[in-house]
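QA checklist item 7 of 12: single-chain prediction sanity check.
[x] sequence parsed
[x] length recorded as 447
[x] structure emitted
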Amino acid sequence: MRATVAAALIIVTTAIYAHAQPAGTNGRAGTKPAAAHPAAQTPADTAKAMTQAELQALQSDLAWTGHYNGIINGEVSDRLIAAIKAFQKDRGGKQTGVLNPQERGVLAATARKSRGNAGWKIVADTATGARLGLPARLVPQRSSEGDGTTWRSSTGTIQILVTRRKDADLTTARLADHERKQPAGRRIDYSAVKPDVFVLSGMQGLKKFYVRGQLRGNEARILTVLYDQATEGTMAPVVIAMSSAFDPFPADGPPPRKIVEYATGVSVSRDGAIVTGGDVTNGCKSIVVAGHGNADRIADDKDHGLALLRIYGARGLQPIALDGGAAKGGLTLVGITDPQNQGGGSAVSRVKASVTQGAGGGELALSPAPALGFSGAAALDANGKFAGLALLKPADVAGLSGSAPAAQAVLAPVEVVQAFLKANKVTPASGSFDAKVAVVRVICVRK
């Protein structure tokens, strides 16, 4: 299924407007139905067990591969399940509507490549105050004048404009009517006007155009995308992503953290020392290591994203040997995914990842990013030796993949972990190379 922008507009626009309304009993905020027997579970049931962030990432990835043409809102729909099946069909696989870990990894890598080719990032426009997703590599030329900003490709085949208008008598109907006529000769193929948002699309000369505007009080902020028909193959997923990512009136402050968040920890000594991810254990009212009880966070390394936990009176912990593997090439990550990803279970799993050096000698990036719950997972080299700790951290604003925060996967190499433990007077015991027995589930409770 290769969706065109025009075919997606009614889905995207309706969902944008409906998503702003109060959730009912069928939404994520409403009453959840009774759990079905596992044997009767449908692809939609499986998707509903995912977190909203995971669903948004899935929708975003499917949009970037050209399979999903709806709003990226973290909600389950028939369109999402159909997109998953279409992706599976294109890969020659069984169309189950549920991605296995290998398929999810391929999807993430393919979407990441598409986003990278476009230079996708989220930017805050100082001229209008809006936040928008931008294919920076496609439109490198930027100019600002008055109440707007324009980005252009070097050849002028693609243009992206953000503008603002203020008037005491503004309505979306008047705004949409003005956009229909400016510039003269626009042909409208699709139009939707709601009390606070409007969307138009069609042809402007030889270019396709998409306009989305939103009204708040007496001010409107409007996104316009123009592109030659020859670039539609590239721009169709970009426009869908831009429509979902466009935040004309962004709220201040970061999104709230989850009340309960799961991570993986690695036991490094027999007396209860566990190293895990720093970000996922920030702001916890209590921390529990499953099967061993409460833990205290006794140290952190903010530069490298590490945290040190201590379980007092712990028994049965089996530390991993920190002899030092090679933090390069292909790695195996050993961790425990979020329980919602495994039907409430706590099984240890292994996933493959590659590690690359960041630009300018920066952080070691892991690709594809593992599922939620893997922050703090053990990374093993080709010989099965501990090569470092896999960490998931929220992306900065410039690195978001869509309207939802995306996780970046990085590796804290074994040398960094060893130095962190030494600085906090933890002497790792000689342990096992079997990471499966050394990893534990870490549960952060914030309220």
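[x] summary fact logged: Residues 152 and 159 are 5 Å apart (CA to CA).
[ ] second reviewer sign-off
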